[in-house]
């Protein structure tokens, strides 16, 4: 099965076109080699993909016959993504939640100082 179709089948991408585009941009590797969308996937292959600023690492267990339900995805892959990969994504969400609503205007000096203090606390 093609890598773009496999990633669509195991629900990492919403459409095959998005999966194909990710392959063309070099966001997907199989066994540490950047691949084209037409590259075939076999059991025991290690897939690394970058999506939403998270580096996922997957091991292929089996090839699905077609797109599978979310509950059945674990039959076809093992997710070896480290937990630390998701921490950066959580920090970005916190920063967005802290900040004001869209279209309210430019940040004030107080907002800027608060953001700088927030960044300093996270670094320590």
UniProtKB/TrEMBL annotation:
InterPro entries referenced in this protein's UniProt entry, alphabetically: HSP15, S4_RNA-bd, S4_RNA-bd_sf
The domain of life is: Bacteria
Task: Map out region (Disordered) in residue numbers.
Answer: 103-124
Which keywords belong to this entry?
A: DNA-binding, RNA-binding
TM segment ranges: none
- Which SMART domains did the record assign? S4
**Which Gene3D superfamilies does this UniProt record tie to the protein?**
RNA-binding S4 domain
What Pfam families does the record tag this protein with?
S4
Q: Where is the RNA-binding S4 domain?
A: 1-64
* UniProt-recorded name of the protein: RNA-binding S4 domain-containing protein
Q: Which family does it belong to?
A: Belongs to the HSP15 family.
